[in-house]
Amino acid sequence: MTKLIDAPARPGRPAGPGRGGPAGGTGPGGGGTRRNVGSGIRNLMTSPKYGPVMVTAVLFVAVFVIGGVRYRGFFSGQVFLNLLVDNSYLIVLAVGMTFVILTGGIDLSVGAVVALSGMIAASLLQTGWSPGAVIPLILVLTSVLGLLVGLMIHVFKVQPFIATLAAMFLARGLCYVISQSSIAITDPTFVQLAVARIPLGGGLSITASVIIALVVVALAVWVLHATRFGRTVYAIGGGETSGLLMGLPVARTKVLVYVISGFCSGLAGVLFTFYTLSGYPLTAIGTELDAIAAVVIGGTLLTGGYGFVLGSVLGVLVLGVIQTIITFEGTLSSWWTRIFIGVLLLVFIILQKVLTARRR
Amino acid sequence: MNQAPPAPVVEMRDISISFPGVKALDGVDFRMFPGEVHSLMGENGAGKSTLIKALTGVYGIDAGTITLAGDRVSFSGPAQAQAAGISTVYQEVNLLPNLSVAENIMLGREPRRLGSIGWRAMRRRAAELLAGLNLDIDPGSLLGDHSLAVQQLVAIARAIDVQAKVLILDEPTSSLDADEVAELFRVIRSLKEQGVAILFVSHFLDQVYEICDRLTVLRNGKLVGEYLVDELLRIDLVQKMIGKELTTLDDLEQRARSVVVDDSDAAVFVNAAGLGRRGAINPADLPIAAGEVVGLAGLLGSGRTEFARLLGGIDRADAGELTIGGRPTKLRTPRQAIAHRIAFSSENRRDEGIVGDLTVRDNIVLALQADRGWFRPIPKKRQDELAQSYIQALNIRPGNPDALVRNLSGGNQQKVLLARWLAIAPRLLILDEPTRGIDIGAKAEIQKLVFNLAENGMSVLFISAELEEVLRLSHRIVVLRDRHVVADLENDGLTVDSLLALIADGSVESDEPVRDVAAAASVTAASVTGHTEDPTADHPAPTTADHTEGGRR
Prior knowledge:
The structure holds 2 protein chains of 2 kinds. By secondary structure, chain A is mainly α.
């Protein structure tokens, strides 16, 4: 009836930068169901939306299986759960970072903010504050720091890289103002909160951190996929001007994204302190880069617009499982983790390029 | 229809807007009536886009008042204008390729429950709107996977969803084919009946005359006048837009016929033998003689741009041989092509052409500087001379070499691009759609320029969707279809009809190519339905905006 129906199947504009549709595939009809399934999978893998995250999922399973085949005792539920226990703070960080990177920004301050949160927690607990006051205070402070960074980026049009770099130095410097040496945490409630194991039956257990991290992940998934704010985050990554012209609250969203990242770094700082039970100004140096690596490996494009929180979680788990394998190997120094992460990142970015380029 | 409804829904009075170095609007009045389609006409740089952006809240106004439905308004952003009932579809599709079609239509006013987006309701609503436009695509699919034409229609679906009082369509038809245009017009008419005031901006006079009731003409940021379409002859309109008698095109026409290049004698400058690239263009031959203008005719996607990109070194050929000046050569990068004095000017002005944040001067010297190498900077004085001479030669407006190129209109940006390539003194200039989306005056100037260049011995490969233009300029016309070269003809007695036949001929499906041919020739529904009161309607061949019905026939 209408001629418009076949419009999408027609090849696009000749030199339009990009989409010629699935080249060649539209010509002769033909092709059975098998080909459709094949091309369906190919489309999924080369789609900028799902491709990278699918690759990460496959990679995670593959690495886990390799570990299972190579090492006795690797294939246990607790090994998997320990991935979560050891990396819960990184998961929270990666969630915040995902919001920022989805808008096409970056947040370099998160590692320093983790350290600062630990310092504030340790020093206030030492002076006798209750954890019930300290933790909310940290979350508020780091959110405010995020707000300041966001305003700096929005109002003064400062590059996110520079604005968050400034915040990073600020936070790291404040750590030393609080103390130049390590402060141990002895507050019984805090320690209890940190080390308590929640049994899952069958000899498996997790910590409170894991639950907090998973709640954060669930919330983030909901916000990003089911709220107007979340969709605006994607919209900014897809094209800030377009979003603006569509009447979306671009400015507010852009600022809020850094508030979220600030909040997540504060929370991650608390979880990290659960893990170390001390505050030390030199901790978590380079952690922001781990978070960025996890997000990228999880399939979020650094240019923004494409990516999933669950992908970032997968990214953290991939990093974690590599670390676990190196521990199981026993003979390798833990620095090998870094080397593997480096290689992996390179491979991933090239893979993303190749996959998305093939579609064009 | 002719008498004005009592109260205008939009009234803009004495609007002035300035940009650094450019006075974009100077005391312009503009009004729109409910249930009327209004057209804003003017050359590039006349201030059409600026006026639209003032109305939609993208630009603030320096002086003047805007009244919407009787109330004085001042918008501080597009969101406010939208909330007030002004909906816009911009010339460049301003949607989000990374989100679904449904989201692109509904984003900002999605149905929500307890803060959650109601995805199902949203898809249903989007599907309804798309069905209203006869567009059968999955609302859940990614927008970026669709063609530009579909994206354009999605943008319109978005605009009509908001129950707008005022709907602004800025060049909505530039990427649509004839059927799609007809669909769009159907939608416009039904909106008009619902009392929406519609602003329809287009360079296609046929379309303007078919759909519009009233038009306002701007020139150089100033108001020329407001007219009823039925009472304004096209030739008068064109003169009002250009502000001078239209003789350039007529001159050209005569010269085009008089200059005949005997290409057996002329040295073949570039010779492509079986040049091709998998998935882009099948191996084809194309000799181009010095001083020859070769037109590439074909549909969108016929391989015309792809072929040109091989010659310009943009894409690498994977078959065949290229001979430049008698020597076999392989072009791997545009840089190599430039070294051989082959310049490629892309159809994608914004992304592959101008550098918006640089000045006119910087944009003009860019290619020349790159060619000289960065260790031999062009002296400032020489840069100024170059910029000045090209600004004068090509009549670039504003004639300020320090103006930022992004503040220029499309036609003037195109001229800056031309200047950039001319500055390297090319021996083959490849122009891909140099006149798309620009007005008659600039078009005529560019066409004239192509002619003069060829007379001085430069070869030109000219690509345009408008067959009349190709016919007018080319000595030889190469016709492409489905990524094959199907004909290579001397432009001697060729007509639009014979070209159309060649483009359409021998295709498997009978229906589709005809439709697309129509698109390529920019046939509008006007020439089908006929405008008997129009002095040009008796032309047998389809007419286009650039015809400038100056009594050529």
